[in-house]
Write a structure and sequence with these properties.
The chain contains seven helices and twelve strands. With 223 residues, the protein is an alpha/beta fold. The protein has a single domain, classed as Spore Coat Polysaccharide Biosynthesis Protein SpsA, Chain A (Alpha-Beta Complex). The protein is globular, with a radius of gyration of 17 Å. It starts with a strand and ends with a helix. Bound molecules: cytidine-5'-triphosphate (CTP) and magnesium ion (MG).
């Protein structure tokens, strides 16, 4: 049955500060959104990608993605609104929907396949996660430590997040909440959210440091 991915790529990238929307910034000569689309398609389990971009970049995005099974649609004011716009463009026959940040351009195909496999095995929602390796503390307003968090039960969350299409549509129909991620909306419906192993390469490019790291990792891989 068909797997469709929604790729939110409509952010402006304020923290990166590249002067163009983040998804259009190149890594090794290829824009992040192109890397993210091709990464999803190379998994062999994604049949179509709905790419959500800033309205001013619609034509550019279409031009960057020739000969690929994609639909390009304009996004909204925040990520949640952009995902909602992408969901609205998905055909009624989709049974599994992935939501994947364009800002994770080096995500390995194995992560995509693990997420899809877990949804197919019956989970209504699936997220890729990594253990938290740093010690984590809570502090008060003055910066004084209040407590040390037990890190053994903590996980850092990546994308793609995978869903049975029905549950994700229902979650968004209930009213999207910008304060949570896509899986959080399904969690709010009372549905269990399963986890699979993420991958360090699925990290999100947020700052200039991350962009530099992504470039170095690509050079390393092609050396
Ligand atoms: N996103 C989106 N629409 C928005 C905001 C974000 O589609 N209105 C997308 C981004 O393009 C990105 C993903 O959501 O692929 C994760 O968001 P983030 O890393 O925060 O990207 P930006 O919002 O672009 O960056 P910043 O917050 O630094 O401005
Ligand atoms: Mg943002």
């Amino acid at each position: 049955s068909p797997v469709v991915a929604v790729l939110p790529a409509a952010g402006s990238g304020v923290r990166l500060g590249a002067g163009v929307p983040k998804a259009f910034v190149e890594i090794g000569g290829v824009p992040m959104l192109v890397r993210a689309v091709d990464g999803l398609l190379s998994s062999g389990v994604v049949g179509h990608v709905v790419v959500v971009v800033p309205v001013e970049q619609l034509r550019d995005a279409v031009g960057l993605l020739p000969d690929r099974p994609v639909t390009v649609v304009p996004g909204g004011a925040d990520r949640t609104a952009s995902v909602a716009a992408g969901l609205a463009a998905i055909g009624p026959d989709a049974e599994v929907v992935l939501v994947h940040d364009a800002a994770r351009p080096l995500t390995p195909a194995g992560v995509v396949r693990r997420v899809v496999d877990a949804v197919r095995a019956g989970a209504p929602a699936v997220i890729p996660v990594l253990p938290v390796t740093d010690t984590v503390k809570t502090v008060d307003d003055s910066g004084t430590v209040v407590s040390t968090v037990d890190r053994s039960a903590l996980r850092a969350v990546q994308t793609p997040q995978g869903f049975r299409a029905r549950e994700l549509r229902l979650a968004y129909a209930r009213g999207p909440d910008p304060a949570t991620d896509d899986a959080g909306l399904v969690e709010a419906l009372g549905e269990p959210v399963a986890t699979v192993a993420g991958d360090p390469l699925a990290f999100k490019v947020t700052t200039g440091w991350d962009l530099r790291l992504a470039g170095l990792l690509l050079e390393d891989a092609s050396a």
